[in-house]
Inverse folding.
C-alpha cells in the first residue's frame, strides 16, 4: 500500500537570526518546467528548524533571566531606566492595584529594566506585548511569589509550544527515526546530508562521524542505485543500462523477466489517476513511489539472501568503494 506525499517546507524566520533563501536561476527554471507551485512553497510550506537550533531556542526560553550577561550601559541609558524605576516605585508604594505599562523602550533598555526590576521588585510579574511596527511594551502587575511562578511557568510553556510549532518538518523526521523502518532511496547520499544539515545539525567534519550520526537516525538504509547494478540484474539486458531513477523504473516495470513478480499497489492519497496513469518524474511523491516500486521488484528478483549485502551500503559517484554505514569500506572487486 503506497502513501505518496509532496511536502513543501520553508524555513522559519526567527527573531535575532539572519536566514537566507538563495535561488539558482537554472534550478528555478528546472522547477518551473515541472510546474512547481512556488506560491504553495512560500505561503503554505511547512516550517522547519534544525534540532540544534530548536535546543538553542528552548534553552534560551528556559534560562531567560538566569543569564548573567554583562550590559555595557551608557550614562544616558542608565538615567532613562532610573527614571522609569522611580515611577514604578511610586506605583508600588501606592498599592500597585492596576497594571503598569512601560512603553517607548528599545530591546536593550527593556533588558536593562528587567534586570533592575528583578533586583528591587522580585514580586512583580512582567510580560511583553507586541505592538505595531515591531514595537513592544512591558506590562507589570503585583502578584505573590507563588502566583509569579505559576505565570512564569505558563509563559515558558507557551513559548516552548511556539518553538515546537516552528519545528514542523523536524517533527516528521523524529517520527521516522522513532519508527525505525527501513529507508529506501535512489542514490540518497546527498539527500541524507541535506536532511541532516537542515533538520539536525551542521555536518560533521569527518565521514566517520557522519556515518555514526546517520546510522543512529536510520539503522537500515537501502540504495536502489547500487541494487540496480547487481550482476543478476545486469544479465537481464545485453545493453548497458542508465542508472538514473527514470531509466531504472522503466526497465524494472517493463522487463519480461520481472513480469512474474506481481505488485498490486493501492495508492491511498487521492493520487491514483496522477501516479498510476501518468509520469511525474522529479516530483517528490512520484519519485518516492517509483523508487519503492523498483525496490520491491529488485528485492524479489535478486532474492532476500543475496539482497542482504546491500543493507546500509550507499553508492558514491566515481569512488572505488561504496559507503558502508556499518563498518569499513571495501574496494570494488574490479580495483582490488
Amino acid at each position: 500500500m503506497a502513501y505518496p506525499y509532496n511536502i513543501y517546507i520553508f524555513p522559519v524566520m526567527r527573531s535575532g537570526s539572519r536566514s537566507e533563501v538563495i535561488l539558482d536561476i537554472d534550478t528555478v527554471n528546472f522547477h518551473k518546467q515541472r510546474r512547481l507551485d512556488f506560491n504553495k512553497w512560500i505561503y503554505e510550506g511547512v516550517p522547519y528548524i534544525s534540532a540544534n537550533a530548536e535546543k538553542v531556542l528552548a534553552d534560551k526560553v528556559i534560562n531567560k533571566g538566569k543569564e548573567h550577561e554583562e550590559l555595557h550601559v551608557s550614562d544616558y541609558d542608565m538615567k532613562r531606566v532610573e527614571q522609569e524605576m522611580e515611577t514604578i516605585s511610586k506605583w508600588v508604594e501606592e498599592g500597585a492595584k492596576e497594571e503598569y505599562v512601560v512603553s517607548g523602550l528599545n530591546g536593550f533598555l527593556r533588558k536593562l529594566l528587567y534586570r533592575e526590576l528583578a533586583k528591587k521588585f522580585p514580586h512583580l510579574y512582567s510580560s511583553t506585548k507586541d505592538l505595531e511596527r515591531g514595537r513592544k511594551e512591558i506590562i507589570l502587575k503585583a502578584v505573590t511569589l507563588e502566583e509569579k511562578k505559576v505565570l512564569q511557568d505558563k509563559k515558558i510553556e507557551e513559548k516552548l509550544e511556539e518553538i515546537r510549532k516552528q519545528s514542523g518538518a523536524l517533527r516528521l523526521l523524529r517520527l521516522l527515526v522513532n519508527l525505525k523502518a527501513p529507508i529506501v532511496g535512489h542514490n540518497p547520499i546527498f539527500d541524507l546530508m541535506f536532511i541532516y544539515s537542515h533538520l539536525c545539525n551542521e555536518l560533521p567534519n569527518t565521514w566517520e562521524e557522519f556515518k555514526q550520526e546517520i546510522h543512529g537516525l536510520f539503522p537500515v538504509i537501502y540504495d536502489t542505485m547500487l541494487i540496480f547494478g547487481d550482476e543478476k540484474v545486469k544479465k537481464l539486458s545485453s545493453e548497458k543500462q542508465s542508472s538514473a531513477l527514470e531509466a531504472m523504473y522503466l526497465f524494472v516495470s517493463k522487463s519480461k523477466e520481472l513480469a512474474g513478480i506481481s505488485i498490486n499497489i493501492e495508492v491511498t492519497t487521492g493520487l491514483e489517476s496522477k501516479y498510476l496513469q501518468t509520469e511525474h518524474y522529479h516530483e517528490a511523491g512520484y519519485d518516492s513511489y517509483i523508487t519503492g516500486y523498483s525496490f520491491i521488484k529488485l528485492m524479489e528478483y535478486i532474492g532476500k539472501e543475496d539482497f542482504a549485502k546491500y543493507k546500509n551500503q550507499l553508492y558514491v559517484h566515481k569512488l572505488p568503494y561504496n559507503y558502508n554505514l556499518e563498518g569499513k569500506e571495501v574496494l570494488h572487486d574490479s580495483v582490488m
In short: The two ends are 42 Å apart (CA to CA).
